Amino acid sequence: MAIIFSLSKKDDSKGRNEILIRYKSGNYAARTKSGIYTAPEWYDFVIGNSSDSIYKGKRVITDEMKELQSYHEKQKTRLSEINIIISDALKNTNIDRNNSDWLKDCIDKFYLRGKYTPIIKEAPQQTLLKYVEHFIKEIQSRKDTKTGLPLTKNTIKQYFVFEKHLRDFAKHERKKDYNFSEIDQHFYDRYVSFLQEKQFAQNTVGKNVKVLKTILHEATIQGNNANPYYNSFRVFKEDTDTVYLNESELQQLKDTDFSKTPYIDHTRDRFLLLAWTGCRFSDLGKLSQTDIKGDFITFRQQKTNNKVTIVKLTIK
Questions:
Q1: pTM of the predicted model, to two decimals?
Q2: Topology at the third CATH level for domain 128-232
């Protein structure tokens, strides 16, 4: 197996001949043109048989001689690059060596590199609003990190409400979107002030900040966010006034006759069940007769996935 160079017999307008490339292996031979021209006296230099310029040792080198030397040095470099492409192709066990097209393709690859170089499109930089939109689209398939269960309707609703507030904030700032590098303490302060100016309760502001931190954490895991500032974002909380009915008031509500308004009568019964058991409203629809065994009501809470047991009470 060998790569053989030779000169064509036909001269060009400047008295130079094209270098021909021939591949030989056993009884098989393929030939193609290189597209590289050299004067016959420079041939050995260009194909690498001689590393010395033909002007070596001459005392006087004219500008014309310098121009010829520069030209042939470039041709030598080009032929060396072609030779590398051919050598790489020969390492490919899939090429059909009985077909000369692969050799022609090597020359084509040298002159038309863009045709063979894969175009790698740089992924567009991920931005906050675009990522939030992507996050919301997949919300139905997401699981609660603590329980492993699908997110509740109320949790999903919080994400949609958060997206609305965030887009309103961007509109307020006349911004189309935010780079993750912009999500710093200054951004947090402006966003919190915007929510507070809307006269939202501190707990509502806190819920929005909590969702923001959750989304930024997810973005960081996926390599979209290199900004660590969100870790210091404060989630606001405030004590709320707890309104409740005492046992006497609950008994009075039970004794009230709502028979003429069945829907109120039904609502009253559900309210009393929640009041006496301490169940969340989200668990009410899950309770059934099968959950009642003896003096105990046992079920699994929807929000926390915890199994709870309640002593059955008899209301007079």
A1: 0.46
A2: DNA polymerase; domain 1 (1.10.150)
